[in-house]
Amino acid sequence: MSKKKFQMLELTEVTPSGWLKEQLKIQASGLSGILYDVWDSVGSYNGWLGGTGDNWERAPYFLDGILPLAYYLKDKKLWEIAQKYIDCILDSQDEEGNFGPQDTKDDWWSRMVALKVLVQYYEITKEERVLDFMHRYYHFQQKKLPENPLTEWGKARCADLLYCIKWLYERQPQVYLLELANVIVKQGDKWNELFERFPFVYPTEYYYDWGIMENYTRNELLKLMRFHHTHIVNVTMALKYPAMTTWLKENNDEKVLEEAMKTLNKYHGVATGMINGDEHLAGNSPSRGTELCAVVEYMFSLHLILEVFGKPEYADLLERLTYNAFPAMFSEDYMGHQYLQQVNQIKATNEKRIWYNNLNDSNTYGLEPNFGCCTANMHQGWPKFVRSLWYKDGGGIVSTVFAPNELHTRLNGEELWVEERTEYPSKLEVQYHIYKAPTMPFTFRIRIPKWCRSYILTSDGMEIQHSREGGYIKLCQRFREGQTIVIRFEAEVEFSKWYHDSIAVERGPFIFVLDMSEKWKEYKVRDSVSDYEVISDTPWNYALIRNQTPHVEEKDTEMPFRKEEPPVIMTMKARRVKEWKEEKGSAGDIPQSPVSTNLSEEIIRLVPFGCTHLRIGQFPFCEK
């Protein structure tokens, strides 16, 4: 099998601190903490608890996020909820090795999500019954897959099962696991082949008219359209597939992954790094939507991709998603979420838009806009991001993405304890305080972000010599207990080019967007969780004046994603474009740049994308 570049750490080896821990607390006091009590889909009547409620993917999705959340926060209530579910899952295994609700015993996909939950549960508790349980289930799969092969969601999302098999094999290597993994590759969708010659370079409506498609039965629909290959969540989940096949086989499939990401970004990409899909691939207009489930699954895919391929570009993209697209899909108190997000989102209202096959309420903020899969699946975003902060590299460590945390691990049998203090992404200095270190030298790598033009690296206040390798700073030495390593990244304002030659304004890990007023209006009232529309009276149809230097002001704030306290503010010159108007509840198709406008010059204010719920994130530009 191909050698991985990095080694993923155990869940318990990285502990969030600073603003990241506060963000997890906000999540736990919001929907993540109350959902069991207010939403029947994951409540006490759920089929995974032996009840008559939902018995498919929703409870496993929910657990996949609240389990690590409860662990990181030592939240007793959340942990007891997760434990109740896990006990039922483990107790449900039958003599053949299958498990879960009786009515869905033939379904492979929902069990894949449950296995991802058990992976995390074992890393926290080290309960040996989990490993025995997984072996018994994999033996069951090996026996039953020839007669009951993967179909639909399980076939499209087979990379998640490969990950779970890989996880167990790396702890208890048994040949049958590799044999099973090869069966999964044979039965699953051939994503590598699809990515090599990706056929969907236009929005899905170009190929399939949903107005016609929705009149067919499910089986007829699947025969008439490649539903699963255009489904946005399937696509972002499948991006981990080349990494999983690289682990399994001798060939290196990174070129397949690189081509897939390049193609998807070219034809369906937007400034946040996301891929448009509402619910299926939707082209790259910033007025089209992208799904919350797709965001969190892309984040998780990048976590696994980083382990196998190790290139810093994957960490750059992970930060871009996490620090821009992801937080903007939630109300600040985490009591409401969107199903779909627009980069150019001038209002979030319950009205007809140009989505491919999503409902009118998809970009409103609430409990269950459009469909409940995101309500169940959104919880994994921040907790799993914590694990992406560090990896091991042979006998050393790698700081891949930046956020406040503590690393507690062992190298060559000796303890290593590093505290990472930082306000990143708000400010671009990262401090590593070493409290315990091995007696022998080891390698310490620090990613150099793609946007970084220069940096200063010091140890206890003195600049230190170092080498650079593959986009990482490389320090190889014996580190002292009490030593402090500080890196200060320097960022410039940059302008990236997108659909219709529109531009996005970037600085460091942040995308900067038009700061619009936000008026929240309750439109669906419930006892505990309401749904909200968000509207604005701020003009939005601006073109940025080309070739200008924005004014940048950094602020001292406790949290990076607050609307009223943005960590960085930028001002720029712009002119309104009267021909650019609202269409069907959204900003109309962005005009091709450069645009012509004779309206007066104005100064507009831009703030980080993640601080906003309404915004323009991709602008046309005009000449002076």
Overview of the molecule:
The structure is a single chain. The chain has 624 residues and is of the alpha+beta class. The chain is built from 20 helices and 27 strands. Helix content is 34%, strand content 21%. The model has no long low-confidence stretch (mean pLDDT 97). The strands form six sheets. Strands 16, 17, 18, 21, 22, 23, 26 and 27 form an eight-stranded mixed β-sheet that branches. It starts with 6 loop residues before the first strand and ends with a strand.
Summarize the structure.
With 624 residues, this protein is an alpha+beta fold. It has 20 helices and 27 strands. 34% of the residues lie in helices and 21% in strands.
Properties at a glance:
single chain, 624 residues, alpha+beta, 8-stranded mixed sheet, 7-stranded antiparallel sheet, 27 strands, 34% helix, 21% strand
- Helix count equals 20
Total number of beta strands? 27
Q: Strand portion, in percent?
A: 15-25%
Task: Indicate the low-confidence ranges by residue numbers.
Answer: none
What's the average pLDDT?
Answer: 97
Which percent range fits the helix content? 25-40%
In quaternary terms, these chains amount to single chain
Structural class: alpha+beta
Give the terminus-to-terminus CA distance.
58 Å
List the helices and strands and how they pair.
Layout: E1 7-8, E2 14-16, H1 18-29, H2 31-38, H3 58-73, H4 76-91, H5 109-125, H6 128-144, H7 152-156, H8 158-171, H9 175-187, H10 191-196, H11 210-213, H12 218-224, H13 227-230, H14 232-238, H15 241-248, H16 254-268, E3 290-291, H17 292-309, H18 312-325, E4 340-341, H19 373-377, H20 381-387, E5 390-393, E6 396-399, E7 405-411, E8 414-422, E9 429-436, E10 442-447, E11 454-459, E12 462-463, E13 467-469, E14 472-477, E15 484-490, E16 493-497, E17 503-507, E18 510-514, E19 519-524, E20 531-535, E21 542-545, E22 551-554, E23 568-576, E24 582-583, E25 586-587, E26 601-608, E27 621-622
Parallel strand pairs: 6-10, 21-27
Antiparallel strand pairs: 1-5, 2-7, 3-4, 5-6, 7-8, 8-9, 9-15, 10-14, 11-12, 11-15, 13-14, 16-17, 17-18, 18-26, 19-20, 21-23, 22-23, 23-26, 24-25
